[in-house]
Amino acid sequence: MSWQGLLKEYKDFLPVSETTPGISLLEGKTPLIKLGKLSAEFGVEAYAKIEGANPTGSFKDRGMVMAMAKAIEEGSHTVICASTGNTSASAAAYAARAGLRSIIVIPEGKIAQGKLAQAVMYGAEIYSIKGNFDDALKIVRKLAEQEDITLVNSINPYRIEGQKTAAFEVCDTLGKAPDYLCIPVGNAGNITAYWKGFKEYNEANETGLPKMMGFEASGAAAIVHNRVFENPETIGTAIRIGNPASWTQAVTARDESGGIIDEVTDEEMIEAYRWLASNEGIFAEPASSASVAGLFKSLKNGTISQGSQVVCVLTGNGLKDPQTAIDCSDFKPLVLENDEAFVIETILGRKKD
Ligand code: F0G
Protein backbone atom coordinates (compact mmCIF):
# COMPACT_ATOMS: atom_id res chain seq x y z
CA MET A 1 0.00 0.00 0.00
CA SER A 2 1.26 3.51 -0.75
CA TRP A 3 2.49 5.82 2.01
CA GLN A 4 -0.38 7.36 4.02
CA GLY A 5 1.35 10.03 6.09
CA LEU A 6 2.65 9.97 9.65
CA LEU A 7 -0.56 9.83 11.65
CA LYS A 8 -1.60 6.59 9.97
CA GLU A 9 1.82 5.00 9.48
CA TYR A 10 3.00 5.47 13.07
CA LYS A 11 -0.35 5.59 14.89
CA ASP A 12 0.76 3.01 17.44
CA PHE A 13 3.48 5.38 18.65
CA LEU A 14 1.44 8.60 18.47
CA PRO A 15 -1.40 10.09 20.53
CA VAL A 16 -3.90 9.25 17.80
CA SER A 17 -7.40 8.11 18.78
CA GLU A 18 -10.65 7.49 16.89
CA THR A 19 -11.54 11.15 17.27
CA THR A 20 -8.23 12.47 15.91
CA PRO A 21 -8.79 13.82 12.39
CA GLY A 22 -6.65 12.05 9.81
CA ILE A 23 -5.18 15.16 8.20
CA SER A 24 -2.10 14.79 6.05
CA LEU A 25 -0.01 16.20 3.25
CA LEU A 26 1.68 12.78 3.05
CA GLU A 27 4.58 14.02 5.13
CA GLY A 28 7.42 11.74 6.25
CA LYS A 29 9.16 8.81 4.52
CA THR A 30 11.99 11.14 3.53
CA PRO A 31 15.10 9.74 1.83
CA LEU A 32 18.17 8.65 3.76
CA ILE A 33 20.97 9.21 1.28
CA LYS A 34 24.51 7.88 1.61
CA LEU A 35 27.09 10.65 1.60
CA GLY A 36 29.44 8.75 -0.69
CA LYS A 37 32.26 11.23 -1.05
CA LEU A 38 32.28 12.22 2.60
CA SER A 39 32.26 8.57 3.67
CA ALA A 40 35.16 7.70 1.38
CA GLU A 41 37.20 10.73 2.37
CA PHE A 42 36.92 10.20 6.13
CA GLY A 43 36.49 6.42 6.39
CA VAL A 44 33.01 6.58 7.89
CA GLU A 45 29.54 5.45 6.83
CA ALA A 46 27.65 8.73 6.64
CA TYR A 47 24.07 9.38 5.57
CA ALA A 48 21.87 12.44 5.25
CA LYS A 49 18.21 12.42 6.25
CA ILE A 50 16.64 14.70 3.67
CA GLU A 51 13.94 16.48 5.63
CA GLY A 52 13.67 19.10 2.90
CA ALA A 53 11.71 16.44 0.99
CA ASN A 54 8.71 16.98 3.27
CA PRO A 55 5.66 18.72 1.75
CA THR A 56 6.59 22.26 2.84
CA GLY A 57 10.33 21.60 2.55
CA SER A 58 11.29 21.07 6.19
CA PHE A 59 11.04 18.65 9.12
CA LYS A 60 8.42 20.88 10.73
CA ASP A 61 5.67 19.06 8.82
CA ARG A 62 6.14 16.00 11.02
CA GLY A 63 5.31 17.92 14.16
CA MET A 64 2.78 20.19 12.56
CA VAL A 65 0.49 17.44 11.25
CA MET A 66 0.24 16.05 14.79
CA ALA A 67 -0.18 19.43 16.49
CA MET A 68 -2.80 20.53 13.97
CA ALA A 69 -4.76 17.28 14.27
CA LYS A 70 -4.87 17.61 18.06
CA ALA A 71 -5.82 21.30 17.84
CA ILE A 72 -8.79 20.36 15.66
CA GLU A 73 -9.69 17.44 17.91
CA GLU A 74 -9.72 19.81 20.89
CA GLY A 75 -12.05 22.22 19.07
CA SER A 76 -9.56 24.96 18.20
CA HIS A 77 -10.18 27.26 15.24
CA THR A 78 -6.97 29.32 15.35
CA VAL A 79 -3.29 28.44 15.59
CA ILE A 80 -0.37 30.75 16.30
CA CYS A 81 3.40 30.47 16.23
CA ALA A 82 6.60 32.48 16.35
CA SER A 83 9.05 31.42 13.70
CA THR A 84 12.35 31.85 11.94
CA GLY A 85 10.39 30.75 8.86
CA ASN A 86 9.92 27.03 8.56
CA THR A 87 7.47 26.53 11.42
CA SER A 88 5.33 29.34 10.04
CA ALA A 89 5.36 27.88 6.53
CA SER A 90 4.31 24.49 7.85
CA ALA A 91 1.67 25.86 10.24
CA ALA A 92 0.18 27.96 7.46
CA ALA A 93 0.03 25.01 5.06
CA TYR A 94 -1.66 22.57 7.45
CA ALA A 95 -4.02 25.31 8.69
CA ALA A 96 -5.01 26.06 5.11
CA ARG A 97 -5.66 22.40 4.41
CA ALA A 98 -7.65 21.88 7.61
CA GLY A 99 -9.56 25.18 7.38
CA LEU A 100 -8.10 26.89 10.45
CA ARG A 101 -6.97 30.47 10.88
CA SER A 102 -3.20 30.79 11.23
CA ILE A 103 -1.34 33.70 12.80
CA ILE A 104 2.43 33.93 12.57
CA VAL A 105 4.90 36.30 14.25
CA ILE A 106 8.33 36.56 12.64
CA PRO A 107 11.52 38.60 13.10
CA GLU A 108 11.58 41.38 10.54
CA GLY A 109 14.15 40.98 7.75
CA LYS A 110 15.53 37.69 9.08
CA ILE A 111 13.30 35.26 7.23
CA ALA A 112 14.49 33.57 4.05
CA GLN A 113 12.40 34.64 1.08
CA GLY A 114 11.11 31.19 0.19
CA LYS A 115 9.67 30.71 3.67
CA LEU A 116 7.92 34.06 3.62
CA ALA A 117 6.55 33.31 0.15
CA GLN A 118 5.09 30.07 1.49
CA ALA A 119 3.33 31.74 4.43
CA VAL A 120 1.92 34.37 2.09
CA MET A 121 0.64 31.80 -0.39
CA TYR A 122 -0.92 29.54 2.26
CA GLY A 123 -2.81 32.56 3.55
CA ALA A 124 -1.38 33.09 7.04
CA GLU A 125 -1.89 36.35 8.94
CA ILE A 126 1.68 37.60 9.13
CA TYR A 127 3.09 39.97 11.75
CA SER A 128 6.71 40.99 11.39
CA ILE A 129 8.22 42.38 14.60
CA LYS A 130 11.27 44.54 15.16
CA GLY A 131 12.76 41.91 17.41
CA ASN A 132 14.20 38.41 17.19
CA PHE A 133 12.66 34.92 17.40
CA ASP A 134 12.97 34.81 21.19
CA ASP A 135 10.97 38.06 21.48
CA ALA A 136 8.34 36.71 19.09
CA LEU A 137 8.03 33.47 21.06
CA LYS A 138 7.41 35.38 24.28
CA ILE A 139 4.58 37.29 22.65
CA VAL A 140 2.80 34.29 21.15
CA ARG A 141 3.13 32.29 24.37
CA LYS A 142 1.39 35.06 26.25
CA LEU A 143 -1.36 35.40 23.67
CA ALA A 144 -2.01 31.66 23.61
CA GLU A 145 -2.31 31.65 27.42
CA GLN A 146 -4.88 34.44 27.38
CA GLU A 147 -6.94 33.55 24.35
CA ASP A 148 -8.56 30.51 22.82
CA ILE A 149 -5.71 30.09 20.36
CA THR A 150 -3.50 27.01 20.02
CA LEU A 151 0.25 27.53 20.15
CA VAL A 152 2.01 25.31 17.59
CA ASN A 153 5.63 26.03 18.44
CA SER A 154 7.63 23.03 19.63
CA ILE A 155 6.74 23.72 23.28
CA ASN A 156 3.44 22.17 22.20
CA PRO A 157 4.13 18.52 23.17
CA TYR A 158 2.31 17.20 20.10
CA ARG A 159 4.98 18.80 17.90
CA ILE A 160 7.63 16.66 19.60
CA GLU A 161 5.45 13.57 19.21
CA GLY A 162 5.18 14.07 15.46
CA GLN A 163 8.84 14.94 14.98
CA LYS A 164 10.08 11.83 16.80
CA THR A 165 8.90 9.78 13.79
CA ALA A 166 12.04 10.81 11.91
CA ALA A 167 14.07 8.67 14.34
CA PHE A 168 11.76 5.73 13.59
CA GLU A 169 12.39 6.12 9.87
CA VAL A 170 16.16 6.23 10.35
CA CYS A 171 15.99 2.95 12.32
CA ASP A 172 13.61 1.38 9.78
CA THR A 173 16.00 2.19 6.93
CA LEU A 174 19.26 1.21 8.61
CA GLY A 175 17.75 -1.68 10.57
CA LYS A 176 19.02 -0.06 13.78
CA ALA A 177 20.00 3.31 15.21
CA PRO A 178 23.29 4.77 13.88
CA ASP A 179 26.30 5.29 16.15
CA TYR A 180 25.90 9.06 15.92
CA LEU A 181 23.07 11.42 15.01
CA CYS A 182 24.26 14.91 13.98
CA ILE A 183 21.58 17.57 14.11
CA PRO A 184 21.32 21.38 14.00
CA VAL A 185 20.04 22.96 17.22
CA GLY A 186 17.96 26.14 17.31
CA ASN A 187 15.04 26.12 19.71
CA ALA A 188 16.10 22.54 20.58
CA GLY A 189 12.76 20.88 19.87
CA ASN A 190 14.07 18.57 17.17
CA ILE A 191 16.97 17.10 19.15
CA THR A 192 14.45 16.50 21.95
CA ALA A 193 12.09 14.76 19.52
CA TYR A 194 14.73 12.52 17.93
CA TRP A 195 15.99 11.38 21.31
CA LYS A 196 12.44 10.54 22.43
CA GLY A 197 11.92 8.66 19.17
CA PHE A 198 15.12 6.64 19.42
CA LYS A 199 14.34 5.67 23.01
CA GLU A 200 10.76 4.59 22.24
CA TYR A 201 11.80 2.59 19.18
CA ASN A 202 14.57 0.94 21.12
CA GLU A 203 12.11 -0.12 23.80
CA ALA A 204 9.70 -1.52 21.21
CA ASN A 205 12.15 -2.99 18.69
CA GLU A 206 15.61 -3.08 20.32
CA THR A 207 17.04 -0.76 17.68
CA GLY A 208 19.73 0.65 19.97
CA LEU A 209 20.58 4.27 20.75
CA PRO A 210 22.84 6.77 18.98
CA LYS A 211 25.04 9.41 20.56
CA MET A 212 23.22 12.70 20.02
CA MET A 213 25.50 15.34 18.46
CA GLY A 214 23.77 18.74 18.45
CA PHE A 215 25.28 21.76 16.70
CA GLU A 216 24.38 25.39 17.37
CA ALA A 217 25.61 28.34 15.33
CA SER A 218 28.52 30.11 17.08
CA GLY A 219 26.61 33.39 17.11
CA ALA A 220 23.65 31.72 18.80
CA ALA A 221 25.27 29.05 20.95
CA ALA A 222 23.37 29.42 24.21
CA ILE A 223 23.55 25.79 25.28
CA VAL A 224 27.26 25.45 24.44
CA HIS A 225 28.16 28.50 26.53
CA ASN A 226 25.43 28.01 29.11
CA ARG A 227 24.14 31.58 28.77
CA VAL A 228 21.35 33.33 26.93
CA PHE A 229 22.48 35.14 23.75
CA GLU A 230 20.57 38.44 23.83
CA ASN A 231 21.42 39.29 20.23
CA PRO A 232 21.86 36.02 18.36
CA GLU A 233 23.36 36.34 14.89
CA THR A 234 24.10 33.79 12.19
CA ILE A 235 23.79 33.31 8.47
CA GLY A 236 21.69 30.24 9.30
CA THR A 237 18.64 32.37 10.12
CA ALA A 238 16.58 29.26 10.90
CA ILE A 239 18.66 28.70 14.06
CA ARG A 240 19.15 32.36 15.00
CA ILE A 241 17.83 31.71 18.51
CA GLY A 242 19.43 32.94 21.75
CA ASN A 243 17.28 31.28 24.40
CA PRO A 244 16.13 27.82 23.26
CA ALA A 245 12.77 26.79 24.71
CA SER A 246 13.77 23.11 25.01
CA TRP A 247 17.20 23.86 26.48
CA THR A 248 16.87 21.43 29.41
CA GLN A 249 15.58 18.60 27.21
CA ALA A 250 18.50 19.09 24.79
CA VAL A 251 20.99 18.82 27.63
CA THR A 252 19.23 15.66 28.80
CA ALA A 253 19.43 14.16 25.29
CA ARG A 254 23.14 14.98 25.17
CA ASP A 255 23.90 13.56 28.61
CA GLU A 256 21.72 10.45 28.47
CA SER A 257 23.13 9.50 25.07
CA GLY A 258 26.77 10.32 25.84
CA GLY A 259 26.82 12.87 23.02
CA ILE A 260 27.80 16.51 22.76
CA ILE A 261 26.35 19.91 21.97
CA ASP A 262 28.96 21.93 20.12
CA GLU A 263 29.00 24.99 17.89
CA VAL A 264 29.92 25.65 14.25
CA THR A 265 30.89 29.01 12.80
CA ASP A 266 29.07 30.61 9.87
CA GLU A 267 32.15 29.87 7.75
CA GLU A 268 32.04 26.19 8.68
CA MET A 269 28.31 26.08 7.96
CA ILE A 270 28.70 27.69 4.54
CA GLU A 271 31.61 25.42 3.69
CA ALA A 272 29.48 22.35 4.47
CA TYR A 273 26.52 23.90 2.59
CA ARG A 274 28.59 24.34 -0.54
CA TRP A 275 30.34 21.01 -0.11
CA LEU A 276 27.06 19.11 0.11
CA ALA A 277 25.68 20.72 -3.03
CA SER A 278 28.80 20.47 -5.17
CA ASN A 279 30.04 17.05 -4.02
CA GLU A 280 26.93 15.11 -3.05
CA GLY A 281 24.25 16.84 -5.16
CA ILE A 282 22.26 17.79 -2.06
CA PHE A 283 20.98 21.32 -1.62
CA ALA A 284 20.01 21.91 2.00
CA GLU A 285 19.42 25.29 3.60
CA PRO A 286 22.35 26.92 5.44
CA ALA A 287 21.17 26.14 8.99
CA SER A 288 20.63 22.51 8.02
CA SER A 289 24.25 22.25 7.02
CA ALA A 290 25.23 22.79 10.66
CA SER A 291 24.84 19.02 11.08
CA VAL A 292 27.37 18.25 8.36
CA ALA A 293 29.65 21.10 9.48
CA GLY A 294 29.48 19.51 12.92
CA LEU A 295 30.37 16.12 11.49
CA PHE A 296 33.39 17.59 9.68
CA LYS A 297 34.48 19.27 12.91
CA SER A 298 33.99 16.11 14.98
CA LEU A 299 35.93 14.00 12.48
CA LYS A 300 38.80 16.47 12.44
CA ASN A 301 39.03 16.78 16.22
CA GLY A 302 38.56 13.05 16.77
CA THR A 303 35.22 13.18 18.61
CA ILE A 304 33.83 10.87 15.92
CA SER A 305 36.23 8.13 14.86
CA GLN A 306 36.73 6.25 11.61
CA GLY A 307 34.44 3.33 10.99
CA SER A 308 31.45 5.01 12.67
CA GLN A 309 27.99 5.01 11.20
CA VAL A 310 26.60 8.56 11.24
CA VAL A 311 23.31 10.15 10.20
CA CYS A 312 23.22 13.91 9.60
CA VAL A 313 19.80 15.52 9.65
CA LEU A 314 19.35 18.02 6.83
CA THR A 315 16.38 19.85 8.24
CA GLY A 316 15.30 22.10 5.35
CA ASN A 317 15.44 22.47 1.58
CA GLY A 318 18.06 24.76 0.03
CA LEU A 319 15.44 26.33 -2.21
CA LYS A 320 13.98 28.03 0.85
CA ASP A 321 16.83 30.54 0.81
CA PRO A 322 17.99 31.25 -2.74
CA GLN A 323 19.58 34.57 -1.76
CA THR A 324 22.17 33.01 0.53
CA ALA A 325 23.08 30.54 -2.22
CA ILE A 326 23.69 33.31 -4.71
CA ASP A 327 25.47 35.54 -2.17
CA CYS A 328 27.93 32.91 -1.04
CA SER A 329 28.90 31.60 -4.48
CA ASP A 330 31.36 33.08 -6.97
CA PHE A 331 28.65 32.94 -9.62
CA LYS A 332 28.79 35.89 -11.99
CA PRO A 333 26.19 36.00 -14.73
CA LEU A 334 27.80 35.96 -18.15
CA VAL A 335 25.34 37.41 -20.63
CA LEU A 336 26.17 36.73 -24.27
CA GLU A 337 24.80 37.97 -27.55
CA ASN A 338 22.37 35.51 -29.14
CA ASP A 339 24.90 34.46 -31.74
CA GLU A 340 25.38 30.73 -32.16
CA ALA A 341 28.99 30.80 -33.28
CA PHE A 342 29.96 33.29 -30.58
CA VAL A 343 28.23 31.33 -27.80
CA ILE A 344 29.88 28.07 -28.85
CA GLU A 345 33.24 29.76 -29.18
CA THR A 346 32.90 31.30 -25.73
CA ILE A 347 31.90 27.98 -24.12
CA LEU A 348 34.76 26.10 -25.77
CA GLY A 349 37.18 28.91 -25.01
CA ARG A 350 36.22 28.80 -21.36
CA LYS A 351 36.55 25.03 -21.18
CA LYS A 352 40.20 25.29 -22.17
CA ASP A 353 41.26 27.54 -19.30
N1 F0G B 1 16.93 23.62 10.89
C1 F0G B 1 15.96 24.35 10.31
C2 F0G B 1 15.92 24.43 8.81
C3 F0G B 1 15.00 25.00 11.12
O1 F0G B 1 14.04 25.71 10.55
C4 F0G B 1 15.11 24.90 12.53
C5 F0G B 1 14.17 25.59 13.40
C6 F0G B 1 16.15 24.11 13.05
C7 F0G B 1 17.03 23.50 12.20
C8 F0G B 1 16.34 23.92 14.49
O2 F0G B 1 15.37 23.07 15.05
O3 F0G B 1 14.45 24.65 16.71
O4 F0G B 1 13.93 22.22 16.80
O5 F0G B 1 16.21 23.05 17.35
N2 F0G B 1 13.32 26.41 13.00
C9 F0G B 1 12.26 27.01 13.83
C10 F0G B 1 11.29 27.79 12.96
C11 F0G B 1 12.75 27.74 15.01
O6 F0G B 1 10.66 28.73 13.46
O7 F0G B 1 11.10 27.42 11.82
P1 F0G B 1 14.97 23.25 16.57
Automatic annotation (TrEMBL):
<feature type="binding site">
    <location>
        <begin position="186"/>
        <end position="190"/>
    </location>
    <ligand>
        <name>pyridoxal 5'-phosphate</name>
    </ligand>
</feature>
<feature type="cross-link" description="Isoglutamyl lysine isopeptide (Lys-Gln) (interchain with Q-Cter in protein Pup)">
    <location>
        <position position="142"/>
    </location>
</feature>
<comment type="pathway">
    <text>Amino-acid biosynthesis; L-threonine biosynthesis; L-threonine from L-aspartate: step 5/5.</text>
</comment>
<protein>
    <recommendedName>
        <fullName>Threonine synthase</fullName>
        <ecNumber>4.2.3.1</ecNumber>
    </recommendedName>
</protein>
<dbReference type="InterPro" id="IPR026260">
    <property type="entry name" value="Thr_Synthase_bac/arc"/>
</dbReference>
<feature type="modified residue" description="N6-(pyridoxal phosphate)lysine">
    <location>
        <position position="60"/>
    </location>
</feature>
<dbReference type="InterPro" id="IPR050214">
    <property type="entry name" value="Cys_Synth/Cystath_Beta-Synth"/>
</dbReference>
<dbReference type="GO" id="GO:0030170">
    <property type="term" value="F:pyridoxal phosphate binding"/>
</dbReference>
<feature type="domain" description="Tryptophan synthase beta chain-like PALP">
    <location>
        <begin position="23"/>
        <end position="316"/>
    </location>
</feature>
<keyword id="KW-0028">Amino-acid biosynthesis</keyword>
<dbReference type="InterPro" id="IPR001926">
    <property type="entry name" value="TrpB-like_PALP"/>
</dbReference>
<comment type="function">
    <text>Catalyzes the gamma-elimination of phosphate from L-phosphohomoserine and the beta-addition of water to produce L-threonine.</text>
</comment>
<comment type="similarity">
    <text>Belongs to the threonine synthase family.</text>
</comment>
<dbReference type="GO" id="GO:0004795">
    <property type="term" value="F:threonine synthase activity"/>
</dbReference>
<feature type="binding site">
    <location>
        <position position="86"/>
    </location>
    <ligand>
        <name>pyridoxal 5'-phosphate</name>
    </ligand>
</feature>
<keyword id="KW-0791">Threonine biosynthesis</keyword>
<feature type="binding site">
    <location>
        <position position="315"/>
    </location>
    <ligand>
        <name>pyridoxal 5'-phosphate</name>
    </ligand>
</feature>
<dbReference type="InterPro" id="IPR000634">
    <property type="entry name" value="Ser/Thr_deHydtase_PyrdxlP-BS"/>
</dbReference>
<dbReference type="InterPro" id="IPR036052">
    <property type="entry name" value="TrpB-like_PALP_sf"/>
</dbReference>
<dbReference type="GO" id="GO:0009088">
    <property type="term" value="P:threonine biosynthetic process"/>
</dbReference>
<dbReference type="InterPro" id="IPR004450">
    <property type="entry name" value="Thr_synthase-like"/>
</dbReference>
<dbReference type="Pfam" id="PF00291">
    <property type="entry name" value="PALP"/>
</dbReference>
<keyword id="KW-0456">Lyase</keyword>
<keyword id="KW-0663">Pyridoxal phosphate</keyword>
